[in-house]
Design brief:
K_trans_N; K+_transporter; cell membrane; alpha/beta; two-stranded antiparallel sheet; seven-stranded mixed beta sheet; potassium
Length: 671
């Protein structure tokens, strides 16, 4: 085999797409437009968009999907915080409990309400939210390549911590709910771990069905959950009405001043009350700002505040309730029904995190940070509902290992906070850039506003760093390993793209020689997939070498992955005629979209370019990567890259090309 690259690109998902530097494609597009020989297409019904729910339906869906994680924090957050300053011989004093309740309330106000709901949610990228969208927006407005790389690394670090969070959330949520058995039926405490594992296995097993079939039930269940939280909170507050004074930040400041270093440790548990705040921003593209904001301000925030204050009042009234203040707020006769409702709520909370991981992984694949993997669509009419089998069972394995290792939700809480606060920090850094460059805030304003939140996030993160020996190493390890995998894949694809560029034949030279060649032309349509539209794909050269023929009609197709959520309507593909019956086609997809190449190419018929999906033959290359004599990648990273490449899904499956229409040539490449 010749020692050069095939038809794939570095930041494409181990397949056809754009090179590491998309400038080649951009220049090609601009040149073609200036020549006036291009047509742009993209139908209204290409399946790239999704409709947002509206009205009460939107509010119900938001409650079921967005607020599951933060809504189940009362199961363990305040208990974990008070345990820092309490012991069997010296229970927490009322002023200490009021201080922690005040810290919890103001954490909800500062981090969730002001930072995310009011500020961060303004920074949408074409309507989409989440740290990947924020990263892409920051990179787009950054002129320096160095800073683009730096902001990309910040975004990837936050994303990797989110994956760690997605493993811990199902484990701690389900475990904290099932622990209610110990309060309701003390003699059955030995079944907590087995039951939690059964619930988790069931949760991950039904992912293949998709959220669509059970999504309609999520909203009403969470409405009931938040209503019960509020009612139980009022019941607890009546035991000690003075707890409402803790709404004042003076109690939080008094706790910090009086306890000093111990208050710093307590902040590591207080932050558990805001876990899930990132989901408000991440799911903005599905529901819009308004429903998320209204649900938080008028229902979720009041319910959480009442419940936290109710638990605090109960602990002041009965210090022995610290064993499980949430369930001890519940009347004894209602503890079993509450256990069932809590289990449903934690499953929903876990479902939101798992679905978010699927969506995030798809975005990273589209942006070229991860290799292709098998993606199943669980709803024929909804593009966003997907299932990734490999990621699903990685998350399941991680959650089960955590349950077996930590065994209690209070122990697992040590591993939880560092992932959340790390993501907060990364989001804050990227938001500084976006609000300065996109919203044109003054430098002083950005420094004051986001500098304050950066300090707050740093304090929370530093407090959780103290938990590293007790379990905080878990999300850090997951984040570091994930970052290494992503940067290794990106680097490997970049090296392949560079080798491809060095060994390529310019498209202009090929087209100039074609009329004088004696190549036999055969009937049919050939689609040659190429990463760079200005060079001849190696699959074509190999076809000429082995088969000695060319088809009558030829399409050179490049799939360009954009750093925006969706391709603009009417601009899905750019078509340029290079020679009679030879066309260049650049098909563009955003990082929130799933490629469907045959569907996109069908649009060519509207421009008079004949395309028959049944008769078309697709030509691509399969790379056999080996180390060059002067390797440009360390041996251990090369091993990781080759492992990822071997397990990547095929181009056929990822682009939804019928496998019986594909001709693949092997190409050896040394890097």
């Amino acid at each position: 085999m010749p020692e050069h690259d095939g038809d794939r690109a570095s930041n494409s998902p181990h397949g056809v797409g754009i090179p590491n530097d998309s400038g080649d494609i951009v220049q090609t597009i601009e040149q073609a437009r200036s020549d006036g020989h291009t047509h742009e297409i993209g139908g209204e019904n290409d399946g790239s968009s999704h409709k947002r729910p509206a009205g009460m339906g939107a509010l119900l869906t938001v409650l079921g999907v967005v607020y599951g994680d933060i809504g189940t924090s009362p199961l363990y957050a305040l208990q974990s915080s008070v345990s820092i300053v309490s012991s069997p011989k010296a229970p927490a004093q009322p002023w200490e409990i009021m201080g922690l309740a005040s810290l919890t309330f103001w954490a909800l106000m500062l981090i969730v309400t002001i930072k995310y709901v009011i500020l961060i949610m303004r920074a949408d990228h074409d309507g989409e939210g989440g740290i990947i969208a924020l990263m892409s927006l920051a990179q787009r407005v950054c002129k320096s390549q160095h800073f683009r790389w730096l902001f990309g690394l910040v975004g990837i670090a936050g994303t990797c911590l989110f994956f760690g969070d997605s493993i811990i959330t199902p484990a701690i949520s389900v475990l904290s709910a099932v622990e209610g058995i110990e309060t309701a039926v003390p003699s059955a405490s030995h079944i907590i771990i087995p039951l939690a594992m059964i619930v988790l296995v069931g949760l991950f097993s039904v992912q293949v069905l998709g959220t669509g079939k059970i999504g309609k039930a999520f909203g009403p269940i969470m409405v009931a959950w938040f209503a019960v939280l509020a009612i139980l909170g009022v019941k607890g507050i009546l035991l000690y009405p003075h707890i409402l004074l803790a709404l004042s930040p003076t109690f939080a400041l008094e706790f910090i001043i009086m306890h000093g270093y111990l208050s710093f440790i307590a902040l590591g548990s207080v932050v558990l009350s805001v876990t899930g705040a990132e989901a408000l921003y991440a799911d903005m593209g599905h529901f819009g700002r308004a429903p998320i904001r209204k649900a938080w301000l008028f229902f979720v925030l009041p319910s959480l505040t009442l419940n936290y204050f109710g638990q605090a009042a109960l602990l002041i009234h009965n210090p022995h309730a610290l064993s499980n203040p949430f369930y001890l707020l519940v009347p004894h006769w209602a503890q079993i029904p509450m256990l069932i409702l809590a289990t449903f709520a934690t499953v929903i909370a876990s479902q939101a995190g798992i679905s978010g991981s699927f969506s995030l992984c798809r975005q990273l694949i589209q942006l070229g940070y991860l290799p292709r993997t098998r993606i199943m669509h669980t709803n024929a009419s909804e593009e966003a509902q997907i299932y990734l089998p490999s990621l699903n069972w990685i998350l399941a394995f991680g959650a089960l290992v955590l349950v077996l290792s930590f065994r209690t939700s209070s122990a697992l809480a040590a591993a939880y906070g560092i992932a959340v606060t790390g993501t907060f920090l990364c989001t804050c850094v990227l938001a500084m850039v976006v609000f300065r460059r996109v919203f044109k805030w003054k430098t002083a304003t950005v420094a004051i506003v986001f500098g304050f939140f950066f300090i707050v996030d740093s304090i929370f993160f530093s407090a959780n760093v103290l938990k590293i020996p007790d379990g905080g190493w878990v999300p850090l390890a997951i984040g570091i390993i994930s970052t290494i995998i992503m940067t290794t894949w990106k680097r490997g694809r970049s090296l392949i793209a560079a080798r491809q560029q060095a060994d390529s034949m310019p498209m202009g030279s090929f087209l100039a020689r074609l009329p004088q060649s004696r190549t036999i032309r055969v009937p049919g349509l050939a689609v040659f997939l190429t990463a760079n539209p200005d060079i001849v794909p190696n699959s074509l050269l190999h076809n000429l070498k082995h088969n000695k023929v060319l088809h009558d009609h030829i399409l050179f197709v490049t799939v360009q992955n954009l750093d925006q959520p969706e391709a603009e309507r009417g601009h899905r593909a750019i078509v340029q005629e290079l020679a009679p019956n030879i066309h260049r086609v650049i098909v563009r997809y955003g990082f929130m979209e799933m490629p469907n190449l045959p569907r996109a190419l069908l649009e060519l018929n509207a421009l008079g370019v004949a395309f028959d999906a049944i008769q078309a033959s697709y030509f691509t290359s399969h790379e056999l990567v080996v180390r060059s004599r002067v390797p440009k990648m360390q041996l251990w990273r090369m091993w990781i890259f080759l492992l990822l490449q071997r397990n990547a899904a095929s181009t056929t499956e990822f682009l939804r090309i019928p496998p019986d229409r594909v001709v693949e040539f092997g190409v050896r490449i040394a890097i």
